[in-house]
């Protein structure tokens, strides 16, 4: 594409993504956006941990519920040559999720909820079975899983074990998910009960499943990646594994990594 055409296309692109009149302070950059955030275009500009990556420009595309940026950076390939790349990132903060299990009863506690993103992408009705999970919202990950367990299942958990932290979808999402497991008592929960924070539009249904039945639903009734991952961890290395599971004693609060 000739340089002048590329510049015109870029300006057109900017007009389409930024409704702010030319010269006016831009929400999310110079002045707070609807959620009180500023300087959202600064994220990533100072990255220098990898000498093969030099960030050249960060543009804020949207700052609504989540933040979308496009970042231009130079990347040095294995053969030593550099190329300019542009990548959009979707930033909604980090999240945490928890497998609630009863090792003796061989049950797990899941929730059913409507997920529009799955519905619009060919899921039959958007009603997904998942482990309780939520965005951190500035809380410590362990605090977040305690909060989400209670809000989404009504279950107040005691000991909580941190397992690992994983990037959910590193091609485009910045999100890192903190994974936990926590025992609950089969019989203490109301199967089919409704929960969730109504004010936030949440409407969850508590679903207690035999762990082997849950495994049998992978790829059918259970299509949420973090849930599949936790179920497989539980039977391979966790409380339902043949060798059993001896978690390290829980700490009061984990260091945030
Ligand atoms: N208005 C509005 N509200 C939203 C939007 N997206 C989410 N919300 C609100 O934010 C709440 C988020 O609920 P959480 O329980 O905190 O998060 P989650 O959606 O369950 O996210 C968890 O699962 C995701 C999918 O696997 C994970 O990606 C995420 O890290 C977390 O673990 C929703 O109930 C909804 O009210 C949006 O685009 N617009
Ligand atoms: Mg949730």
Automatic annotation (TrEMBL):
Gene Ontology BP, a term: nucleoside phosphate metabolic process
Annotated residues for binding of Mg(2+): 133, 148, 152, 202
Database matches in Pfam families: NUDIX
The keyword Ubl conjugation is annotated on this UniProt entry: no
GO cellular component: a single term: cytosol
Annotated spans, Disordered: 1-46
Taxonomic superkingdom: Bacteria
Compositional bias per record (Basic and acidic residues), positions renumbered to this chain: 32-46
Location of the Nudix hydrolase domain: 91-236
Cofactor needs: Mg(2+)
SUPFAM superfamilies: Nudix
Leader sequence segment: none
GO MF term set: hydrolase activity, acting on acid anhydrides, in phosphorus-containing anhydrides; metal ion binding
Key words of the record: Hydrolase, Magnesium, Metal-binding
Complex and partners: Homodimer.
Protein name: Nudix-type nucleoside diphosphatase (YffH/AdpP family)
Organism: Kineococcus rhizosphaerae
């Amino acid at each position: 594409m000739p340089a002048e055409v590329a510049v015109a296309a870029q300006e057109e692109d900017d007009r389409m993504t930024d409704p702010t009149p030319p010269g006016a302070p831009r929400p999310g950059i110079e002045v707070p956006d609807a959620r009180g955030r500023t300087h959202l275009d600064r994220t990533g500009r100072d990255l220098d941990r990898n000498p093969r990556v030099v960030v050249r420009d960060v543009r804020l595309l949207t700052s609504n519920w989540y933040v979308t940026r496009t970042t231009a950076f130079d990347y040095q390939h294995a053969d030593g040559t550099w190329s300019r790349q542009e990548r959009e990132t979707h930033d909604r903060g980090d999240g945490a999720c928890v497998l609630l299990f009863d090792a003796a009863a061989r049950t797990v506690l899941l929730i059913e909820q409507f997920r529009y993103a799955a519905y619009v992408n060919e899921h039959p009705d958007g009603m997904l079975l998942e482990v309780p999970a939520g965005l951190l919202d500035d809380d410590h990950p362990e605090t977040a899983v305690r909060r989400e367990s209670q809000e989404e299942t009504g279950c107040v958990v005691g000991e909580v074990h941190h397992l690992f932290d994983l990037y959910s979808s590193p091609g485009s999402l910045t999100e890192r998910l903190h994974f936990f497991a926590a025992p609950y008592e089969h019989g203490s929960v109301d199967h089919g009960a409704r929960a969730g924070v109504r004010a936030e539009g949440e409407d969850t249904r508590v679903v207690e499943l035999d762990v082997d039945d849950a495994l049998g639903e992978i790829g059918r009734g259970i299509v949420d990646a973090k849930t599949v991952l936790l179920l497989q961890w539980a039977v391979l290395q966790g409380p339902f594994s043949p060798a059993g599971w001896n978690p390290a004693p829980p700490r009061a609060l984990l260091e945030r990594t």
